[in-house]
Amino acid sequence: MSALSHFAQMWTGLADDRILETGVTVLAFTTAMRIARFGGNHPLLNPTLLAIIFISLGLEAAHIPYASYLRGTDIIHFMLGPAVVLLAVPLFRQRATIRASGRLIGVGLAVGLPVGILSAVGIAWALGASSQTILSLAPKSVTAGIAIGISEQIGGLQTLTVVLVIMTGITGAVLAPIVARFCRVDDPRVVGLTMGIASHGIGTARALQISEVAGAFSGLGMGLNGVLTAILLPAICKLL
Amino acid sequence: MLEQIARVMFWFGVGELASRSGLLPLPAPVMGLVLLYVELTIRGKLPDDLGILADRLLQLLGMLFVPAGVGVIAYLDVMKTEALPILAAVIGGTAITIFVTAIVTNRFGQAFDREREAGQIAEAVRDVSP
Question: What ipTM describes this predicted complex?
Fold first, then answer.
């Protein structure tokens, strides 16, 4: 009995110290990576998506509330900041290619930015979504940190926007390599740029798996799309 | 290596301050990215350890989104009433965005490349001809 209570105490200790949640997340992701590699890195076997499914099923089965899991993974979540800062490295390594592709990047943004907003807003409007939902959807292709600010400015719901941003990221990371192959687009600059503009950091994580050129262009697409959307979208909303 | 971790955290921190000042609509990590890039451009050289650190951490970038993604699943039943328009807008809209952006940008990319090749040939011809 005392051994059991000792065990229970040890277990809560682990949970309190975030070791359990962090460990489970790392384990789920490494397992997902292994499955993805086993499946020839097929886009549908996206490690981020697989790990999310594993953990959600695990939490559901063990009746662990999401909030307590999320509290325990703040270290992983925190690492996102330094990781985004480090995207400067692939950008710096590919600076010659980037400088030579100025017009290409301009075209990508001129197309991807408005299409990203209008396609989502248009579909939601056609299917009768509420105006608050439509406004929360508008910045969905932008990296979460910027999208929250835009959503607040134009009258969307911040929490909903975060959810939509992450859903968009995963959708893009899964679909982009499939669409690129289907359309026979094999220029890594174009594939990367598209992934960054359409699906921000999660798309960039996938683009980095394709090649460093794709990763660098994706990071660049994410950053420029974020900044331009933050400037343009609230201004356009004010005009309407 | 520790020095490079400190460098990243330094720019992340400065990015945080710059972001809070509200001068630019950029979150701290993106601000840090720009600052680190500027520093590297001024130096003109990438420290070896910083390259290794970036390669290692960016390989795991996908993992860092997992907690947030699990949070999305928790939120799914909250938006049940508008699930159809939301899912259609997110999945359909993202598919359209990728399709259109990839095709149009690729066309222009090919045209730009041809233009450059033509320019190079013209230059070579000019060099050869007296």
Answer: 0.88
